[in-house]
Amino acid sequence: MNMEKEKSLSILNDWINTPFSYLEQFAGKTNLAQDIMMKVSESIQEYIAPFFDEGRHKDKVKPNPLFSAEDRRTLKPIVIRLADYGISGHYDRVEAAVKAILESHIKIETPLPGGKRVRWYNIFKNSLTDYTDKGYTFINKDGEKETVSRSKGYVVFEINEDVADLVFDMSKGYINHPVKMARISSATHTTQLYALLKHHCINGKCKLTVNEIKKYLGLCAVDENGDVTSWMFPYFYHFRKNVLDKVQADLTRMGELGQIDYTYTYKEIRQGGKTKGDPDSIEFTLVPTIITEQVENDRAMQSKRRKLINTLCKRCGDLNRKEVKDVTDYVKEVDFLIFADYCYKEIPMLIEKNYPEDVAGYILYLMRTWIENYEARKNKQPITQSLFDTIEPERPKETVIEGKYAVEWERLCNECPESYKEWLRKATFIGGRGMNIYIEFKDKVTQGRFSEFHHNGSKDSKKFHKLYKQIMNNKSSGCLLTFGSK
After folding, report:
1. Residue 468, SS3?
2. Mean of the per-residue pLDDT values of the chain
3. What is the arithmetic mean of pLDDT over 77-93?
4. Which residues contact 265 (CB under 8 A, 6 or more apart)?
5. pTM
6. Buried b (16+ CB within 10 A) or exposed e, 366-376
7. Distance between CA atoms of 140 and 136, rounded to whole angstroms?
8. What is the DSSP string of 248-275?
9. What does the alpha-carbon distance between residue 297 and residue 310 come to, in Å, rounded to a whole number?
10. Left, alpha or beta for 258 (phi > 0: left; psi -120 to 50: alpha)?
């Protein structure tokens, strides 16, 4: 079967997740500088994707850091081609943007007796900007002539590993947005205000003070301690006209073009009949655009695919996540629920029935075969077996070693949850092969009921799988399997 993945129509293909804490650094920067910084976020998606795949984002108290200690030590320089921004001249704009980005810093406070210590750290260690106006020819490492034109200029940034976890702190939330949002925006504050509202709005509504908005957007001057000394747009009329209304019009335009999922309306909240000066707060309401429903559906589908991948990889630790993702991504959205139901219910029973030596390879084989047969049936092509027939490849020649893992089996029976003990008393211990323990039931009815109980996802089921892993010396690729009873 050709498993070449078709191009998905999901809008989210061109969207990324950016830590809310990193978006704070966009304050006061031009759209070009923001666009270059967005490229940094795009470059670290290889770390953000596992953060979601492994479920670390579900820890509501304190998610695990985005980077491991090894990741921080080996962070690669981020290379940004100027040609991607349509820049082949006017490098003064690039220099100004790079300078502003390098001035981005983060404040770290350390409590001291009777006070505190304030330190500022740059979020990027250094940058290299390389470009030419006329181009030149040089001899490359292969001894060949190579011409560099001004369109081949590039900028390189290195993330400061000392503050990487603070700058890209996922515990403060993250925003899902178009990767080119800063580029398609016409107003300087669009990206940040969009992020601020998405971060704070619950059920599509939130209230913010004028100063809270200004501080996040960088519309203020601060001293060396980070305390605000003055505010931009001291008259609310100017703030409303140059920020709130301008960004609202920009998001509305992008929404009409199908580029963004929400715009907003707002209402000034004033107490005591006050009509002048800053309102006490501003109430924002997110307004869906023409793509909102599709974006939400795509996010829900992403979540379902991620859940299936996680379930399969937990069941068999030898599975390659990328291979599983490639197979699941091949399944169209309209067929996915049927496919997922097969993976959740049928595959575990087939594993127990056929006790394959290569469980990981067997799972991928079953998934690919299901897709092949399903597509053949939809296209009214001949198939070798009924769509929902069980797939029974030849059993491995190597047999189970009788009596192997007898000590582990006895410990499993003694330490497992009470709900399992009743089932295991009905089973006959056979032996082991690989990291799998094999048992047998006297009839297929009992075996089927146990299989359904064993894979129902209950708390006891999860405890049992965890205990099994501990007893088998944390070899997560093994599992408890049953012979097909007569």
Report:
1. helix
2. 81
3. 71
4. 248, 284, 285, 287
5. 0.69
6. bbeebbbbbbe
7. 12
8. HHHHHHHHHTT--SEEEEEEEE-STT--
9. 20
10. left
